[in-house]
Amino acid sequence: MSCTGAQIEKDIAETFDLEAIIDEFKYFKGRRAELYFFIQILLRDKSVMAVSFDLQTFILRARVLKLYRQALRVTKRAPAHSKGELMQTIRNEMEKNRDCKDKQKIRYFISEGMERLKGLDEMLDMQGH
């Protein structure tokens, strides 16, 4: 049985903010039908993926990766003598918490990471980098 995009949107909207999900998956930009199909597969049969995630876990994973990419982008603006150390610190922090399965703790780590990244970004701005 095939679900329509509207039905999938309704099902997801009962639990999640659809616009937030779409923002998390920017690589689906302009391909909303593909996003609906992808989410439909996740909702119908979670075993389709090589590693089975529920939708919340999948979204958290996307947010962690987004934070990591943002951190690396900010690090590129750092002075050359500290760039390598910053990148290594970011990688170490990610690796240290890689096996965390507690969703509440992951949300905390994301929030903490965003705050630390914001502070680093502001410090680099103040230094003119």
From TrEMBL:
Family: Belongs to the complex I LYR family.
Role summary: Involved in efficient integration of the N-module into mitochondrial respiratory chain complex I.
Protein name per UniProt: LYR motif-containing protein 2
Pfam family membership, one: Complex1_LYR
A GO CC term assigned to this protein in UniProt: mitochondrion
UniProt subcellular location: Mitochondrion
Keyword Transport found: no
Sorted UniProt keywords: Mitochondrion, Transit peptide
Keyword Transit peptide belongs to the record: yes
Domain spans labelled Complex 1 LYR protein: 63-118
Transmembrane spans: none
InterPro entries (alphabetical): Complex1_LYR_dom, Complex1_LYR_LYRM2
CDD domains per record: Complex1_LYR_LYRM2
Domain of life of the native organism: Eukaryota
Organism from which the protein derives: Tagetes erecta
Taxonomic path: Eukaryota, Viridiplantae, Streptophyta, Embryophyta, Tracheophyta
Principal cellular location given in the protein's record: mitochondrion
